[in-house]
Amino acid sequence: MQKKHLTKEQAIMKLRQYCAYQERSHSEVQQKLWDLGVWRSEHDAIISSLIEDDYLNEERFAKAFVGGKFRMKDWGRKKIYYGLKEKGVSEYIIKRAMKEIDDEAYGKTLHELAEKKYALLKGEQYLVRKKKTMDYLLQKGYEPALVTSIVNSFGGKE
């Protein structure tokens, strides 16, 4: 079956809705263009049009991504960084967006997650409990040095 190709104007209208619904990265829009069956030769012009009309803004996307993943999912900086890398966001914009995370809030969130996880593992032996708590926090994307210092601060207390 032949894929129906959209005109440039039809594609722009569809992508404006797509971008208005939530912030998108350039790579997500690029993928959507392929999915819609838009000719490759028109991709750059369509993306430029979306940027000019402020439907597409990589920095705004990155800041929304960072804020959302940290506040809603409690992700650490490393996991957020790699999430943005996966979306094709530039190093410069990632650095700017990461400034959205307040150091104090970051430390507080990490501490709360560590305490909650540690408390959940009450029946485990001390070292197993420590390791599982550390693994959990590392998987969430928190930096190994921070994780180690927080989990070690628990000592042997119950």
Automatic annotation (TrEMBL):
Chief location bin: cytoplasm
Highest taxon in the source lineage: Bacteria
Residue intervals of the RecX third three-helical domain: 109-148
RecX second three-helical domain mapped to chain residues: 57-98
Keyword Flavoprotein: no
InterPro entries associated with the record: RecX_HTH_2nd, RecX_HTH_3rd, Regulatory_RecX, WH-like_DNA-bd_sf
Keywords: Cytoplasm
A GO cellular component entry from the record: cytoplasm
Gene3D superfamilies found in the cross-reference section: Winged helix-like DNA-binding domain superfamily/Winged helix DNA-binding domain (1.10.10.10)
BP GO annotations: regulation of DNA repair
Compartments reported by the entry: Cytoplasm
Family listed: Belongs to the RecX family.
Function: Modulates RecA activity.
Entry protein name: Regulatory protein RecX
Taxonomic path: Bacteria, Pseudomonadati, Bacteroidota, Chitinophagia, Chitinophagales
